[in-house]
């Protein structure tokens, strides 16, 4: 971290009262877990929790083999016996303490953040934490700004909570700040202002977009001016493979960007950030973590206490054994190799997409520089035909083609309509390139070409 970092001030805990849902305000801390820290006091005899006797646990040791990212050699790792015993028992809601400390150090270093009012909590994947965050922040009819298109699973949570969704337009560089500003400037008088903006800023799912630094600064300035939070869902942060330097995260920017003297409150604490190890260590370990204002993260923890007590400390111990040995340099070296793999996959997929669809004018797209998705627009009407000038949005919609005709041809993808917050037709399709090899990619694009040509009336297409 730079020694030249300036002093930053955090918003007070009372600021977040208006971001608490009725359910969050009604939820009380667990009367048992609230007393867990007292058990660590010297000479304390605990009759508190119904913890199982550890002698009944059959696990005596745990070791695994993993590749060293700096040497590419396989190495043996053993979980420290004391750490293993700790991880097999009930523990703190926020996560295995040593693992939480490691993550806090990572966030401090990677995002250049002093410890000014934020903390980390670990969940069963970032989706688990996002779900809980929305439940603790929003009541029915509360307003959320949400980029369009947006991750479909997040929409299922938002819709289940009856949150009012305001779509923010995007292009090949993600959220368009000028469009967001117009939405806010023209906000109906008397209507509650939005509580938060939800965005996936790197390799956005589904659009694969990465928001440039200049736009991020504009969006952060709008959050300060119009007093809303930024929900930074960032599972693809470490899957950035662009040629330009990776833009700073919103979590980093809010500490480095200041608008002092403009009448705008530049105190930090408007970003609630979600990270995931699913894309870089293991999806099955189900490790995600939230970083943000202690008041907001604390409410998420209270929800966890009543929902599932804690995430798996056993997987935390495995990750900690690995990461403690690697150190931050080793972890970052590993993520760099992961991102380069996805760059190769992106290039392979894009080459096949261009060969079978792009060169024939059957699809257009923007090249992603992060993540594992390509978001492409199918051109279902021949531009040279008379039908092209009179076709309706519904006729250009990809949903039926992808859900029926493509499946009949042996190819599965997601139609773009499932990613539109308030629904509606769209010619876009989301395709994942993460698992494909070159031969399979070629065959997939060959089949999709046939589907599009037949949709244009070329029944003889092969």
Number of domains: 2
- Would you report the number of β strands? 14
Low-confidence stretches: 1-5
Strand content: 15-25%
How do the SSEs run, as a string of H and E? HEEHHEHEHEEHEHEHEEHHEEHEEH
Residues in helix, %: 25-40%
What is the gyration radius calculated from CA atoms?
A: 24 Å
Question: Going by CATH, what is the homologous superfamily of the largest domain?
Answer: Type I PLP-dependent aspartate aminotransferase-like (Major domain)
| Name of the CATH first level of the largest domain | Alpha Beta
CATH architecture assignment of the largest domain: 3-Layer(aba) Sandwich
Structural class label: alpha/beta
The gist of it:
Helices cover 36% and strands 15% of the residues. It has helices at 22-26, 81-88, 97-110, 126-137, 152-160, 177-185, 213-226, 250-256, 294-307, 313-358, 399-408, 438-455, and strands spanning 63-67, 74-78, 118-124, 143-148, 164-171, 174-175, 196-199, 229-233, 271-276, 287-293, 363-365, 373-378, 414-415, 428-432.
């Amino acid at each position: 971290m730079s020694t030249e970092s300036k002093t930053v001030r955090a918003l007070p805990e009372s600021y977040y009262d208006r971001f608490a849902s009725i359910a969050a305000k009604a939820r009380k801390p667990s009367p048992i877990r609230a007393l867990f820290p007292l058990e660590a006091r010297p000479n304390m005899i605990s009759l508190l929790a119904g913890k199982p006797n550890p002698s009944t646990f059959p696990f005596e040791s745990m070791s695994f083999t993993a590749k060293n990212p700096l040497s590419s050699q396989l190495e043996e790792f053993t979980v420290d016996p004391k750490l293993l015993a700790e991880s097999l028992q009930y523990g703190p809601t926020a996560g295995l303490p040593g693992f939480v400390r490691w993550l806090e150090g990572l966030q401090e270093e990677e995002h250049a953040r002093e410890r000014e009012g934020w903390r980390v909590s670990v969940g069963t994947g970032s989706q688990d934490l996002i779900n809980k965050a929305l439940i603790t922040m929003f009541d029915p009819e509360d307003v959320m700004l949400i980029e369009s298109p947006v991750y479909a699973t997040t929409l299922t949570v938002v819709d289940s909570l009856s949150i009012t969704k305001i779509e923010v337009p995007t292009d090949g560089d993600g959220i368009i700040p000028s469009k967001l500003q117009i939405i806010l400037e023209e906000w109906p008088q008397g209507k509650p202002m939005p509580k938060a903006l939800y965005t996936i800023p790197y390799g956005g799912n589904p659009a694969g977009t990465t928001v440039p630094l200049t736009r991020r600064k504009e969006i952060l300035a709008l959050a300060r001016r119009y007093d809303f939070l930024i929900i930074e869902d960032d599972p693809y942060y470490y899957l950035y493979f662009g040629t330009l330097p990776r833009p700073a995260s919103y979590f980093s920017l809010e500490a480095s960007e200041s608008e002092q003297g403009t009448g705008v409150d530049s105190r930090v604490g408007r970003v609630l950030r979600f990270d995931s190890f699913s894309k870089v260590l293991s999806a099955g370990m189900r490790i995600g973590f939230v970083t943000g204002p202690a008041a907001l993260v604390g409410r998420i923890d209270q929800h966890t206490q009543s929902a599932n007590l804690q995430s798996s400390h056993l997987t935390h111990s495995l990750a900690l054994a690995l990461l403690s040995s690697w150190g931050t340099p080793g972890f970052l070296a590993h993520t760099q190799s992961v991102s380069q793999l996805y760059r190769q996959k992106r290039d392979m997929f894009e080459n096949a997409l261009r060969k079978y669809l792009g060169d024939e004018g059957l699809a257009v797209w923007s090249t992603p520089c992060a993540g594992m998705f390509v978001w492409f627009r199918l051109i279902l009407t021949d531009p040279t035909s008379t039908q092209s000038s009179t076709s309706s949005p519904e006729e250009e919609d990809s949903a039926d083609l992808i859900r029926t005709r493509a499946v009949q041809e042996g190819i599965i993808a997601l139609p773009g309509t499932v990613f539109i917050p308030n629904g509606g037709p769209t010619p876009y399709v989301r395709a994942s390139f993460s698992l494909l090899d070159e031969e399979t990619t070629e065959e997939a694009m060959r089949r999709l070409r046939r589907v599009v040509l037949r949709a244009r009336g070329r029944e003889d297409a092969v």
